[in-house]
Amino acid sequence: MKKLSSKTMKILKAIHFSGVTVWVSGVMCTLVILLALSQQTSHEGILALLSLIELADYLLIIPGATICYLLGTVYGLFTVWGFIKHKWIILKWILYNIACIPAMIFALPSVEAMRQFVLLNEVAAASVPELRDKLVMHGMLSSYILVIAVVIVFISVYKPFKKRKNTHADRHL
């Protein structure tokens, strides 16, 4: 199987880093917007902020997560890392799926449910219990995704379970 050149790998790493940054930034934007939304006292403001959450999902979270998935696949197929060669890579794939599958199933439908509730009930304050509960649930989902994404970044940096080469300092311990 053809392996990627070092120049191509550097380009892929830069794109991968950008994808992770966009994905995590999108989730963080969602959390900030949810905080602003929880303080909202106007019907129009609530709807505008719900639209911003949806925009963050479409413009940041989905593209960033997709880039991460596609490049992870490329790394698995065309590098020496492979898909199952290292435990830290397997852990990243598992965590990525644990983060993204619930997000794909619940995030946008949650925003749409909130929008419909606001429109049907002419909600003018985010303190209405039913809307507040929906906001809390969406905030919990976003926080869950953010925590997993940060853990994945740490796994990428520290590569746990990776066998370390003995260094000069290790031999004297």
Architecture overview:
- With 173 residues, the protein is mainly α.
- It is 80% helix and 0% strand.
- Helix 1 runs antiparallel to helix 4 and helix 2 (43-78) runs antiparallel to helix 3 (87-121).
- The longest helix has 36 residues, at 43-78.
- The model has no long low-confidence stretch (mean pLDDT 91).
Radius of gyration: 20 Å
Structural class: mainly alpha
Q: Please tally the β strands and state the result.
A: 0
Low-confidence stretches: none
String of helices and strands: HHHHH
- Largest beta sheet, briefly? none
* Beginning-to-end CA distance, first to last residue: 41 Å
Question: What level of helicity do the residues show?
Answer: over 70%
Helix tally equals 5
Assembly state (oligomeric)? single chain
**Tell me, what's the shape?**
elongated
- Average pLDDT figure: 91
Beta percentage is under 5%
The gist of it:
The protein is mainly alpha-helical and 173 residues long. Helices cover 80% and strands 0% of the residues. Helix 1 runs antiparallel to helix 2 and helix 3 packs antiparallel against helix 4.
Write the layout of secondary structure elements.
Elements: H1 6-38, H2 43-78, H3 87-121, H4 129-158, H5 168-171
Helix pairs in contact: 1-2, 1-4, 2-3, 3-4
What features would you highlight for this structure?
80% helix; single chain; mainly alpha
